[in-house]
Amino acid sequence: MDLRLTKFTKRFGDVTVIDKMDLTVRSGEMMALLGPSGCGKSTTLFAICGIHKMDGGTLHFGEEEVTRLPAQQRPVGVVFQNYALYPHMTVAQNIAFPLRVQRKTRSEITDEVGRMAELVQISNLLDRRPAQLSGGQQQRVALARAMVRKPDVLLLDEPLANLDAKLRLEMRSEIRRIQRETGITAILVTHDQVEAMSMCDRIALMKDGGIVQLDTPMGMYTDPADKFVAGFLGNPP
Ligand code: ADP
Ligand code: MG
Fold it and tell me: How far is the CA of 45 from the centre of ligand 2 (A)?
């Protein structure tokens, strides 16, 4: 399902941090929101998942306007940098949690948790608790929990930031594999240009609360709109 932000505006007090931003993410694509710290990436993601209300503009998922839809009712799955798994629950219980909230039957839950564990390849870890997992494994659980309700849109906020270099590489390709296999529309927030270039179909490069350029990784690299873009991608003129 495609996603359309039109004239999105966000203020904190008197400060306008996003000013009339337009963004379209196509159905089934993985879009990077890339940019330096503080440029407004997370703020944009929070508006899309409904954690923050928008101060202006509209948001559509496909034909449906969801601008004022409460967060719990939006068809989105979210993964944050710090996993936010429930420490007292097992892996299986963590993944099952969104389904229990939906009051699914026990056998439906067992089936779905099994299916998700297979997708993210943690079927052998279902009885462990988060503290007994590596960072990469925890991030796989977070992905499974985000996807278990079959959302239309997957939102990832710096999902690799807490991983060491080796796991980060592994999880880059794993997240991409999972996104491709499920065909889910996804947005990856990152400040790492290599991550955006290697994982995403297109990149929206942000600066000071707006999008400076939106293109494929190759298009942006070979034809940067300005010096900021060129510098940020590590290809200064
Ligand atoms: P990014 O994710 O790109 O690093 P953010 O979206 O978190 O940036 O922040 C964008 C701007 O909004 C920053 O200047 C930040 O200080 C400000 N900001 C974010 N959240 C809040 C908040 N809850 N209250 C006030 N200012 C905020
Ligand atoms: Mg952020």
Answer: 9
